[in-house]
Design goal:
This protein is α+β, with helices and mostly antiparallel strands. It has 7 helices and 10 strands. The longest helix has 33 residues.
C-alpha cells in the first residue's frame, strides 16, 4: 500500500474534542486560518503568502514564514491517495488514512465557528496504539505544526498496516523501554526491602529497639549503603550500618 506515495502527511486536528471526533467519524481532516478565506485561488506559494499577510497583518515575518507554508501544503501539495496520520490527543492511538478528496472550503457552521473551514476528505484505514510505532516515528508525529511530513517513516506506516492485516509487526522500541522500566522498578523495590531487613538485623544484634521512622521508605528511592543520601545545610547525610539508620557527617566519607 502507498507504493507510489512520495510523502507521509501528519495532521493535528483541533484542540476541540467534538470537532476532532467529527473528523474521525465523518472522514475528514481540517485546519484553521479561516480568516484567509477559500484557499483555491492562491495556487502558488507567493500568492498564498500575500493572502496570509493581508489576513494577519500583525504577524511577524518569522510567524508568517512558519505558517503560510502549512496552509499551502494542505490546499495544494497534498494529493488524492497520499497517506496521512493523525495522532489522537485524547487517546494513545494514531489514525492512519488515505487522502480521498481535493481541498474544500467548508460552509459548515460548526467548523466555521471553530476556525476549521479548510478541509479534505479522508478514508481512515486503521486506528492503532502508539506503541506500535518506533520512538523516532512518534517524535516526528508529535510535531507542533498543524501540517507536516514524516517521509522517513512511510515504510514503518506500511509495515504497521500490514500488521493490521494479519502479519506480526516488529516489536517497537517503546515496548522494550516499558519492560526495562518495570524491571528497574522491581530491582529498586528489592533493594529497598534489603535495606529495611538489614537495619532490623543490625538493630536486633545491638540489643536496641529497631529503628522506626514515621517516614515510609519509598521503593523508588535510591538508597545505597555508604553513599550520600542528601545535603542539609552544608552537611551530607550518609546511609550507615549502625542501629541508627542515618548519621550526619560534615567532612568525611565512610569507607
Amino acid at each position: 500500500m502507498f507504493e507510489s506515495a512520495d510523502h507521509l502527511w501528519v495532521v493535528h486536528i483541533s484542540n476541540n474534542k467534538h470537532l476532532a471526533e467529527r473528523a474521525q467519524g465523518e472522514g475528514f481532516i481540517c485546519i484553521g486560518w479561516t480568516r484567509i478565506g477559500d484557499l483555491t485561488p492562491y495556487d502558488t506559494p507567493e500568492s498564498l503568502r500575500t493572502a496570509y499577510e493581508r489576513a494577519f497583518p500583525g504577524k511577524s515575518a518569522a510567524s508568517v514564514s512558519s505558517s503560510y507554508g502549512q496552509v499551502y501544503r494542505f490546499a495544494h501539495q497534498m494529493k488524492v491517495g497520499d497517506p496521512v496520520v493523525y495522532p489522537i490527543k485524547a487517546s494513545r492511538d494514531v489514525l492512519i488514512g488515505r487522502i480521498a478528496g481535493a481541498y474544500q472550503w467548508s460552509a459548515d457552521p460548526e467548523l466555521r465557528a471553530g476556525d476549521y473551514c479548510n478541509i479534505r476528505a479522508v478514508e481512515w484505514l486503521a486506528k492503532v496504539p502508539r506503541v506500535r510505532f518506533s520512538q523516532g516515528a512518534l517524535r516526528s508525529f508529535g510535531s507542533f505544526s498543524s501540517v507536516s511530513t514524516a517521509d522517513d517513516h512511510l515504510n514503518e506506516v506500511r509495515a504497521v498496516l500490514a500488521g493490521e492485516s494479519g502479519s506480526r509487526p516488529e516489536v517497537p522500541v517503546a515496548v522494550a523501554d516499558e519492560d526495562e522500566a518495570k524491571e528497574s522498578e522491581n530491582d529498586a523495590e528489592m533493594a529497598a526491602e534489603e535495606v529495611i531487613q538489614r537495619t532490623r538485623t543490625i538493630s536486633s544484634a545491638d540489643g536496641a529497639e529497631p529503628h522506626r521512622s514515621s517516614r515510609k521508605l519509598s521503593p523508588r528511592s535510591s538508597v545505597h549503603w555508604g553513599t550520600p543520601r542528601r545535603r542539609s545545610r552544608g552537611r551530607t547525610i550518609w546511609a550507615s550500618t549502625s542501629s541508627r539508620t542515618r548519621t550526619r557527617s560534615a567532612s568525611c566519607r565512610p569507607l
